[in-house]
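An instance follows:
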Amino acid sequence: MTTIKILSVNISKEKGTIKEPIDSIYLSEIGVEGDAHSGSWHRQISLLARESIEKFEHKNDRNIKYGEFAENITIEGLLLHNCHPLDRFKNESIELEVTQIGKECHGDNCAIFREVGNCVMPQEGIFARTIKGGELKAGDKFDYIPKSIKIHIITLSDRASKGEYTDRSGPHIQHLSKKFFTEKNRAFNIRMSLIPDDEEQLKKLISELTKKEVDIVFTTGGTGMGPKDITPDTVKPLLDKEIPGIMEMIRVKYGAAKPNALLSRGIAGTKDKTLIYTLPGSVKAVTEYLEVILPTVEHSILMLHGLGHQ
C-alpha cells in the first residue's frame, strides 16, 4: 500500500483562477466547501503531485506555488496520472474516489496558461469525489488503494462438474482476462466456479456475486438450443438492463462467415453494479466473444458507477 502526504490544501472563489493555500479544507458530499469547483458532479476535488510540479518548474524555469495549477490538494509520494478511475484515497476520517485522470486544457481560461503558455494539470492532475467527508490539512496522509476489478467465471457443464472431462473454456476466459487487465495496468482478482447445468444453482450464485459487488461475471456454456442449454433463459430475468449491441455485433461479425455462430443465444446485461456476459462453452468462441467484450468493460464499469462522462 502506498502512503501519500498532503503538502497543501487550496481553494478559489472563481473558476479559471489560481487557488490559495489555507490552513484546512472541509470535504463534504459536494467536494471542498467554499471552493468554486464544488458541486454535485464528478470533478468535485482536484489533486496534483509535487513531482509533476517540479517537472514543470524545471522545464519552464519558473517556481510554482501550491494552488497555482488550481489544484485543491497538493500531494507528494505518487504519480497521480498513473491512477485509474475508481481508485481511492483513504485515511481514518476521509475517503475519496478518483473520477477522472487529466482534463481538457482550457487555454486562455486558465491563469497559469495565460502567463506561461503551458499547464501540467490537463496531463497529470486528477479529479475525485467525496465518499466520506471530513477536515483535511497539510501534513495529513492518505493511503492509496487501487481499484481491483473483481471477475467471477462460471462454467456450466453437467459432465465437467462430475469430472468426466476437463473444463477448458473457463480457464481460457481467465487467461484472456488476465492478459487484458495486465496490459491495462489494472489490478484485478479472478475467481472461478464450476456447476452443473442447473437453473437454481446459477440463480443463487449470480445473486451472491452481485451482492458482493463483483464487477464482471462471465458464464460459459449453455447458450445453445439443446434441452440442457438454460443459461440465457436463467440470466435474462435477473438483469436490470440488457446490453444487446455487444452480442448482436458478435453474432453478425462471426455469423457472416460461419452461420452456426448465429445459433448462439448469448446475452449481456447488468445487475446492480455487476456486468454479466453469457458466453458459449468452446475455447474458440470464448476468444471471439472476448475480443469484442473486453475493450468495452472499463467504460461499462465506469457507467455503472455514475462516471459515464469518461
Q: What stands out?
A: The first strand starts at residue 2 and ends at 11.
